[in-house]
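Following up on my earlier message about nicotinamide-adenine-dinucleotide. Here are the inputs again, as you asked, copied directly from the submission form:
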Amino acid sequence: MFADSHFQGRRVLITGGLGFIGSNLARRLVDLGAEVLLVDSLVPEHGGRPFNIADIRDRVTVELADVRDEQRMERLIRRQDYLFNLAGQTSHIDSMRFPQADLEMNCRAQLSVLEACRQHNPEVRIVFAGTRQIYGRPDYLPVDERHPVRPVDINGVNKMASEWYHLLYHRAFDMRTCALRLTNTIGPRMRVKDARQTFLGVCVRRLLEGVPFEVWDGGQRRDFTYVDDAVEAFLMTAASDEAVGRVFNVGGAAPISLRDLADLLVELNHGGEYLVRSYPPEYKRIDIGDYYSDFSLIRSTLGWEPRVPLRDGLARTLEFYREHLEHYL
Ligand SMILES: NC(=O)c1ccc[n+]([C@@H]2O[C@H](COP(=O)([O-])OP(=O)(O)OC[C@H]3O[C@@H](n4cnc5c(N)ncnc54)[C@H](O)[C@@H]3O)[C@@H](O)[C@H]2O)c1
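Thanks, got it. Here's what our run produced:
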């Protein structure tokens, strides 16, 4: 836990701050009284868009910049108390189609950020947005942090490397870094235009447009974190000295099969249809099958646990897109 005053007046930089999770984190931080600076290059295939911060635009500073721009980062990083490092490429299939681009965004960009911090603000507290994707196909469930990491796609390899850069900078340079391994995160402001960020996004879009969405296979069980819960995990981790140098899984309350998830979406929408298909081979190659997280480490260390039930999270998400879908197409 952290005191409500913890972030009051503190200077906070969020890379990827116009994206899905970054913009929700920004909204919470301005409410807590932080001075928030968002850095984002608005990569078209990613989840960032100015509309994500439309309601808080006059309460944050926005710098449209690529985090690989060393000179600008050098200037932006100085005097920050916290850095939430969320800039990144999320699409697994894009990483297989364009591996060099994923390397650039998920590895080189992260090293640039860390180097800017090391040289110009080594005291800054850094929380990195890592992913459960680095575990690959689980040997056992639920997956805890001791599970071997064995990524099945380029994105997983690069996100693993970027997590390790962060931990290395703690060990080698005594910097105050840590990482979260997020599972599927859902909620208002996620990318729904296509399945690049999460397959659930495009399902929500199709449902609201009144056309059938697709479920591949459907038997796989997954867990989901509502974005407000993910935001609390970032804040609790940043606020705790115990988190420095460590990695925590962030998961959902209970796993659900994708077919049950589809039924729940249809129920909450009071109608809709979906088609069950087998996986296209290109996707099957990088599928991880069943996955859900053991989040007992972050619960026992920091007191974090998911608070928003999946049903409520999905209902709030549908409500948001019923009102704002046009801004996300
Ligand atoms: N959404 C999830 O379910 C999920 C799950 C696991 C991990 N993560 C991680 O969380 C982070 C945030 O994810 P998100 O879902 O909000 O994605 P997002 O695509 O909505 O946000 C990422 C933002 O980073 C920006 N960006 C990318 N490269 C940049 C660069 N070089 N310089 C400046 N800005 C850059 C993009 O323009 C985008 O706005 C990512 O690092 C992602 O890997 C997300």
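One observation from looking it over: The chain has a mean pLDDT of 97. Hope that helps, and feel free to reply on this thread.
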